[in-house]
Design brief:
single chain, Glutaredoxin, 5 strands
């Protein structure tokens, strides 16, 4: 199981990439959690903790559209299209900044898998910091 997880994480890629895509109507930060039909306890923890951070710390930004939270099921046809854009084949977490019609992708998948379940406080803090940094 560990080997399968590592292959999935490696295939997702990591680091920051800039990609041009359909430009959103305004500058914003998109937090995108990708998942498949079946999810492990860590996958569930990633979604739960991400939702808590956004709901508790970024409620106003969410309401104003400055922060957007998307949950994408990659096992659906619509989700598969979005997953293809981000080259996602596994549960993944992205915090992407849209500025002047350009998207900067931040793949936090490896960090999320390493911390969301067993170190949730560190996960929440780092995720909140990344969202704040991206809002600047």
């Amino acid at each position: 199981m560990f080997l399968t997880l590592m292959i999935g994480l490696i295939s997702c890629g990591n680091g920051e990439n800039t990609a041009n895509a359909e430009s959103p109507a305004n500058d914003r930060v998109e937090v995108i959690y990708f998942h498949g039909k079946q999810r492990c306890a860590t996958c569930v923890a990633i979604e739960k903790n991400t939702r808590e951070v956004i709901d508790n710390l970024f409620a106003n930004e969410l309401k104003d559209g400055k922060v957007v939270f998307k949950i994408v099921d990659i096992s659906t046809p619509e989700g598969e299209k979005i997953a293809d854009k981000y080259e996602v084949t596994w549960s993944s977490l992205f915090v992407n900044k849209w500025k002047n019609g350009e998207e900067t992708q931040n793949n936090l998948t490896e960090f999320a898998f390493g911390n969301a379940r067993n170190n949730s406080d560190a996960f929440k803090k780092a995720l909140a910091d990344k969202i704040r940094q991206s809002l600047k």
